[in-house]
Amino acid sequence: MDTGQNQHILIQASDLTIGYPGRVICGPISLEIGAGAGLGVIGVNGSGKSTLVQTILGALPSLGGTVAYKGRELNENSLEFRQNVAVQASDGAFFEELTVAEHLEMTARGHGLASWKSKVGRELEFFDLQDQAQNLPSELSSGQRRKLLLAATLIRPAQILILDEPEQRLDVKIRQRLYDRLGEYRRDSVAILAVTHDPMMLRSCLDEAFLMDSDQGQLMAAAHGAQWLER
Amino acid sequence: MERSGLSAETTPRESIAYDPSQVLRRVRTGRTFAERFDAFSDMYVWALAAVVALTYLTSALYGAIFVMIGQGVPHLLLPTAIWDVDALSVFLLPVMLAAVFRCMLFTGPLGLAQEKADWWLPLPIDRQVLLRPAWLKALGLGASSSVFLGLLWFLAFFGVGREFMPAVFGLGMVFFILMGLGLAATAAGVQIRGRQVVARRISSAVAAGLAATAAALAAFGSSDSAASLLGSAGLWQVLAVLSAVFCCAGTVWVLRGIAGTPGAALREGGIHQQQLAGLLMQGDVRAVATMKPAAPAWRAFSARLTGRLPAAQRVLALRWLRSGLWKPAASISAAALAAVLLVRDVANPLAACLLLAVLLGVLNSSLAEAVRPVATQKELGELLGRTSFQIHRTALAFSAVVAGAALLLWCAGLGMLGFLEAAAWFNWLLGALLCAAALASSALAHAQRGERDWAQLFSNASTEMNMSAFLLQEFMTLIRALASGAVLYYVLLAPALPVPWGIWAIAALCAAPAISKFFR
C-alpha cells in the first residue's frame, strides 16, 4: 500500500507482523509513507495501533517483516533518524526541577536550533502555555503536560511526525489549531503518521486512514476513516 | 507560525555538540544559598544513612552467618549432610559472582532514567554524552556490589575459625573489584547486543554446573583441599590477574559496540535501576515483583484450581498464583531445607530459627503484595460488592490460609528431620496457626502503608531517638511478622520444654488484630 508520493518514500514497512513473543496482533502489513503524506492509524482499542507505530519506530521488535527508513533498514539510533523523525509519546516523564520553558529549551538546543529562544516563545504561545512557562511539571494539569509534550515534538525540525493520539486531553480550540498547523507541515512536505480516534483530525490534516480491523488492515480515504470512527 | 519541516539537503550531517545535562547543571548552580544548603544537607543525610544502613546490614549478615553455623549449639548429624561450611564457601564464591552478573543484567547495566530517555534519546546529539555517565555508573554498580558481597564472603571465610591473612584479604578485594568491573562490562556487552535471554540461560547453567562440581568435590572428600587453597595468597594473585584480563576483555567488548546501544535497552535498564533503588530504599518487593503475564497453560490451570472459591478469594488466589508471588516463599523453604539436609553445620536449631525468620519476612512481603490492590483501592472492593471491612477480612483470611499452609509444610519438613518433638505437636500446631493469623495481619498492615518520602523522614529526624522512632514505625510490620513466630522459635530451640506463657502471650498479641477481625 502506498501512501504518499512514490518518488520520496520515507518509511516502508514490508510484510510486517506485529505483536509480542507468542502473541501475534496483526500482520503481515505493508505500508509506505512518502514525503508530505498524512496517514491516520485507526481501529478499536486493543487492535494494535500503538503497537504498529512502536514497531515501525523500532521500539518494539517485529515478529516478521522489515521496516526501512529512506531505503535502509530502520535504525532508531542513527543520526539521520533522530534528526528527521519526530515522535510524540502518548505519556512522558519530566524533569522535576526543570520548568516548561527549560524543557523546550533542551529540545530546541539539542536539535541545534540557533534561534531557540524565539522558537520556545512561539511554541509557548501556540499551546497557550505562556503563563506556565516558569512552572514545574508538578504544577501543570494533565492537559498542560500533554501540550508540553506536543510542543516539544513540534519545536524541532523533522521530515516526518509520528503522533500517538495527539488529541487526547486537548480542548477543541487547541485541537483545531494543531490540525491546521499539521496541514501546513504537510504542504511543506513533512509526512505525518498519527494514531487517532478523532474524525476531525482525519478530515483536517490527513488524507488516508489505515484501519486495523483485520490481519492485514485496510487503507482507505481519510473521509471514510472519519465515517468509520463516527459510526 | 514558522514551519519546522527540514529538507534532506539542509539536514546537518554531524551530530549536535550539545550536552542536555547542562540545563540541569545551570538550574542547580543557579540555586540560592539556602537551596544549595538544603541540597547539600539532603545529600549528606543520604550518604550518612547509606553508610549506617550498610554497617547494620553487614553486621546483621555477619551475625546471621554465625547463627547459621550454630557456634556452641549441638548439631543434628544427618546422614545426607555431605558438605561442611568450608565446602559451602567454595560453592558460594562463584554463586555470588553469578548473582552479581544477574543483578547487572537486570539493571541493564547501562540505563537512563525515564525522563532522560524520553527527552534526550531522540536528540541528534553525540550519544557519548549520554552513554559515558551510564557506563561509569554501570561500572560503579558492578564494583560496589561485588565488593559488598566479597566483604561478606571474607567475613564468613575468616570467621569460621581461620586466622586473618591481610595478603589474602587485600588480593581478594582486588579480585572482587576487578570481577565486579568485568561482570558489569560483560553484562553491558550482552545488553548492547540484546543477548540477555541467552546470557541468563548460560549463567543458570553455569551455576547448576558449579553446584554439581561442589557436590562432587564434597562427595569425594576434596572440598577441604579446595577450601584450604582459598587461604593461599598465591591463588588470589592468580585470580586477581585473571580477573584483570577478564575486566580488560569485557571493557574492549563494550567499547566496540557501546555507540549502538539500542534506546529501548537504555530505557529498560533505567526503569530496572529505579526499581532496584526503590527496593533498597523501601525494603519493598513491589518494585521487582512486576507482574509478568503467566503462560496460557498456567492461567488455565490456576483458573480451574480456584474455580470453586468465592469471587473475592478467587481474585486474590489468582493474583498469588499467576504473578509468581508464591515463588519466593517456596524457593526459601526449598533452599533452607536443602541447606539443612546437605550442610553439616547448618543442621542446628539456631540456623532453623534464622531460616524461619527469613521465611516469615518473605511471606510477609509477598502476601502484602498479593493483597495490596484490595487493601488500598476501595473501588476494587466495591466492584466485588464488598465494604472495606469485608474486603479486608477476605484479604486476612486469604493470607492466613496461605501462611498457615506454608508454615505447616515447613513444620512438617523440620519435624521429619527431627528438629521438632512429635510429642509436642500441639505446641507447634497452635504456634503455626497463631503465626499464620499474625502474619496475615502484618501483611495487611504492610500493604496499607503508603509510599514513604524518606528524604522528608530523614530531614524531620532531628535526633537519633527521633530517627529511631521513624525507623521503628517504618519497620513495625516487619518486626510484627518476625515476632509472630515466637512460639515456633521456642519449640525449635527447646523442643522438649513446655512453652512459657510469656511466649504464648507475644504470639497471641501479634495475632489478636486478625483474630478480632475474623470474629467481629
From TrEMBL, chain A:
Highest taxon of source: Bacteria
Keyword DNA-binding: no
Pfam families from the UniProt entry: ABC_tran (PF00005)
InterPro entries reported for this sequence: AAA+_ATPase, ABC_transporter-like_ATP-bd, ABC_transporter-like_CS, ABC_Transporter_VariousFunc, P-loop_NTPase
Coiled coil: none
Swiss-Prot/TrEMBL keywords: ATP-binding, Nucleotide-binding, Transport
Molecular functions (GO terms): ATP binding; ATP hydrolysis activity
ABC transporter domain: residues covered: 11-229
Keyword Oxidoreductase attached: no
Annotated SMART domains: AAA
Entry-linked PANTHER family: ABC TRANSPORTER ATP-BINDING PROTEIN ALBC-RELATED (PTHR42939)
Protein name: ABC transporter ATP-binding protein
Organism: Glutamicibacter uratoxydans
